Amino acid sequence: MPALKPTKHSCEIVYLGVVPDREAALVSDPKVEVFAGFAGIDGECHAGLTRPSCSRVLSQHARGTEIRNARQLSIVSAEELELIAAEIGLDSIDPAWLGASIMVRGSPDFTFIPPSSRLQNEAGTTLVVDMENRPCIFPGKEELEPRYPGKGKMFKTAATDRRGVTAWVEREGPLKVGDRFTLHIPNQRHWSLEA
Amino acid sequence: MPALKPTKHSCEIVYLGVVPDREAALVSDPKVEVFAGFAGIDGECHAGLTRPSCSRVLSQHARGTEIRNARQLSIVSAEELELIAAEIGLDSIDPAWLGASIMVRGSPDFTFIPPSSRLQNEAGTTLVVDMENRPCIFPGKEELEPRYPGKGKMFKTAATDRRGVTAWVEREGPLKVGDRFTLHIPNQRHWSLEA
User: Fold this and answer.
1) How far is A68 from chain B (nearest CA, A)?
2) What is the pLDDT of residue B61?
3) What is the tens place of the pLDDT at every residue in A93-143?
4) Between the CA of residue A102 and those of A9, A35, A163, B60, what are the distances in Å?
5) Cα A6 vs. chain centroid, distance in angstroms?
6) Mutate to test the interface with B, among A5, A68, A117 (most CBs of B within 10 A)
7) Chain B closest CA to A96's CA: distance in Å?
8) CA-CA distance, A45 to A52, in Å (whole number)?
9) CA distance B47 to chain A (A)
10) How many whole angstroms separate alpha carbon B24 and alpha carbon A147?
11) Which positions in chain B touch A172 (Cβ < 8 Å)?
């Protein structure tokens, strides 16, 4: 039996977004459909087959080292954003404020789906989950605080364990709002030294 | 804290090999040093930024679909090959017979190191573990059986949970016999639905 196993779990794409220029703004512009190529989403500033390494991987690489880009996409879940909003005391959090590429609905405990899982839509477009994303202060500082003074600094803590995952494109194709992703996971036991 | 965490675990490269042409033979030719580029190891028939999908991912893709190549390298462990050999009743198993790209020594339970783990040597060359590799019948049929008649058919079962992992290159650089890999793992709790 192959190591990569389809599961009964699926989730719906309820938001798609593209960040045209991170330096200009963190937010993503909503889209109804995008094309996911091997380098990521067309027109997205986080696209690229490789990227200069950032502060998140300083334990592995000096800043600016050319590495393969496993952070082409940021995927969040609607249910987890609702939990963040509730904790901060807001009615909702717009996935655009987090610069999200995709928001899904229907996949429980989304941030912790196993590393190397695959998300595949009906067209066959396939994304590989690298691992959990960790929250930073910028959505709070740049997007929440100007809209809701006093709330910005609450974001990072509220988003802990709820910030979704980073991913890259394994099979090219379209992604559309309303598509359903099926979840495929590595069908293997846990490493015995991990705990 | 970043999601990718260095661990205290390390292992030594004790074998490097290149398979020049899988159609001609499964075995890898031993090397003392290779260059790992973004497409994989130079001169290796499994190299490529993409690959046509194979029987292992038929639950995800029609055979021959172009997908990103997460199987550039096959990495096995000396300790696990010793267990396979003992179970079959041989003194040793040559990693070349499995078409291995790399054999390491010193990493316990190697086949089950977490998906999306990184292996990084002193030069900074970094490999990403996709997931467990699953044994097939071919090393037994093509390599063991001609050498040790009657042993070939025992390989697949003996190699279960001991076949190592598949991997791809995240940061380019040299790999040499005698290098030490440090293991970096995704520092995240298990998915609550996985069990």
Assistant:
1) 5
2) 98
3) 999 999 999 999 999 999 999 999 999 999 999 999 999 999 888 899 999
4) 17, 12, 12, 21
5) 20
6) A68
7) 23
8) 13
9) 15
10) 65
11) 66
**Option in B60, B126, B134 nearest A60 (CB):** B126
Q: Which domains does chain A have, with CATH numbers?
A: 4-44+72-186 (2.40.33.20)
H-helix segments, A36-184: 78-88, 138, 145-147, 155-159
Which residue in this structure is represented by tokens 């292996």?
B119
Least Cα distance to B38 among B88, B72, B74 occurs for B72
Question: Is a pLDDT exceeding 60 seen at residue B60?
Answer: yes
Classify the C-alpha dihedral B4-A100-A176-A180 as positive or negative.
Answer: positive
- Rounded Cα distance between A88 and A165, Å, is 21
- Output the six-digit token pair for A133: 């994303």
Q: What is the DSSP letter of B46?
A: T
Q: What is the pTM of this model?
A: 0.96
Q: How many Cβ pairs within 8 Å bridge chains A and B?
A: 149
Q: Residue B161: exposed, middle, or buried by beta-carbon count in 10 A (0-12, 13-18, 19+)?
A: middle
Please answer yes or no on whether A4 and B70 come within 8 Å at the CB atom: no
> What are A38-60's pLDDT values in tens digits?
999 989 999 999 999 999 999 99
CB A73 within 8 A of CB A49: no
Residue range A6-17: mean pLDDT, rounded: 97
Give the containing element (helix H, strand E) for B138.
helix B138-138
Per residue in B168-190, pLDDT (tens digit) is 999 999 999 999 999 999 999 99
Q: In this complex, do A38 and B49 lie within 8 Å of one another by their Cβ atoms?
A: yes
